[in-house]
Amino acid sequence: MIKKILITGGAGCLGSNLLEHFFRQGHEILVIDNFATGKKEVVPEQPRLSLVEGSIVDQALVDKSFDDFKPDFVIHSAASYKDPDNWVEDTKTNILGSIHVANAAIKHGVKRLINFQTALCYGRPSKIPIPINHPTNPFTSYGISKHSGEAFLLQSSLPVISLRLANICGPRLAIGPLPTFYKRLKEGKNCFCSEAIRDFLDMTDFLRLIDQALEESAPLGIFNVSTGLGYSIYDLFCAVCEYLEIDMPEVPRLPVGDDDVSEVVLDPSETEKAFNWKATVNFKDTIHNQLRWYDKFGINDIYSHLAEPKS
Ligand SMILES: NC(=O)c1ccc[n+]([C@@H]2O[C@H](COP(=O)([O-])OP(=O)(O)OC[C@H]3O[C@@H](n4cnc5c(N)ncnc54)[C@H](O)[C@@H]3O)[C@@H](O)[C@H]2O)c1
Predict the structure, then answer these.
(1) Of ligand 1's atoms, which has the minimum distance to the CA of residue 15?
(2) E strands, 218-278, in order
(3) CA nearest 211: which of 24, 9, 11, 47?
């Protein structure tokens, strides 16, 4: 059955992958994006694909988009994070924007809203892998504002699935150490590795779960989406060197910064049971798939939700 899916932040990394995925499935799509970190060219002019250029902070724009398009499903992927000191913009987009989207979705009786949440909502976890019932204690502008936005959605009358995500690797990934290592190593520049440990998930595994989350029978609530396996940033660096077939350069290993979390590995066991889903792509293939994409399409602007390291 053809679905009408409204994607906030549809010009971003996850949003644009979903847009392509849904388009191939024959669905009708409306994207709302202000291109803060997304790119206009990833939303091509197509008959079943419309774009509203603007911010979800603009309530009139959100209401009109819902009134005109009348979506059955909402994927809420828009988020602000690119300046860790810009608490005002993060608050506006991640809290106020989420409230506008949720209220419009309630008014239109959408069948489901899928929200994407950062693992930073857990703050500095006391248990690894982080179970879904672990207390939340975010401490950054991004983490706190995303957490508040999610809290609003979950207390609303909307049928919400909030997916707390590992680092999803796939086309157009432009945040974090992976694109940074690739670009710098290709340019012959030095790198450094933090001591942090993270979990990485291939886009194909993520898209499989999204398809299931849009089924009428899918469970609602909060879910961790991850392989459940942690790798160090140094492991990531080694995987990039191996892929580029370069001799491993000396690389300084720096302690995790004050604004970062040393270990983030989400426990997906409840998600695996609830959705009968499990990640299938291993770490090396996930990273190499990503690097093959950079080989083909390149990578320019790279964003971070962390402050610039003081050198
Ligand atoms: N990619 C991951 O691995 C990952 C991990 C954890 C959580 N998430 C969450 O998934 C979502 C998508 O992340 P992403 O990696 O695709 O990031 P992204 O930056 O590529 O996408 C976010 C999109 O939101 C848009 N946007 C920002 N502010 C907006 C506003 N006020 N109005 C309309 N659009 C706005 C940006 O222009 C961008 O296109 C975010 O909510 C993020 O918190 C992603």
Answers:
(1) 16
(2) 221-225, 231-232, 253-254, 263-264
(3) 24
Rounded to the nearest 10 degrees, the angle between the axes of helix 283-297 and helix 177-186 is: 50
Tell me the CA–centroid distance for residue 9 and ligand 1, in Å. Answer: 6
The minimum-distance atom of ligand 1 relative to the CA of 146 is 43
Please check whether residues 192 and 115 belong to one and the same domain: no
Helices 98-107 and 141-155: crossing angle in degrees, nearest 10, is: 20
CA atoms of 115 and 77, how far apart (whole Å): 6
The parent domain of residue 99 ranges over 4-169+201-225
Tell me the best of 165, 225, 301, 305 to mutate to test the pocket of ligand 1, counting ligand atoms within 8 Å of each CB and taking the most: 165
Helix (H) or strand (E) holding 181: helix 177-186
pLDDT tens-digit readout, 148-159: 999 999 999 999
- What's the average model confidence in pLDDT over 269-286? 98
Please tell me the predicted confidence (pLDDT) of residue 304.
63
The predicted pLDDT at position 311 comes to 46
> Closest ligand 1 atom, CA of 97?
31
Residue 310 lies in a domain: no
Q: Kindly list the protein residues whose Cβ atom lies closer than 6 A to any atom of ligand 1.
A: 8-9, 11-15, 32-38, 55-57, 77-80, 93, 97, 116, 118, 146, 165, 167-168, 175
In this structure, are 11 and 71 located in the same domain? yes
CA 144 – ligand 1 centroid, Å: 15
User: Do residues 216 and 293 both lie within one domain?
Assistant: no
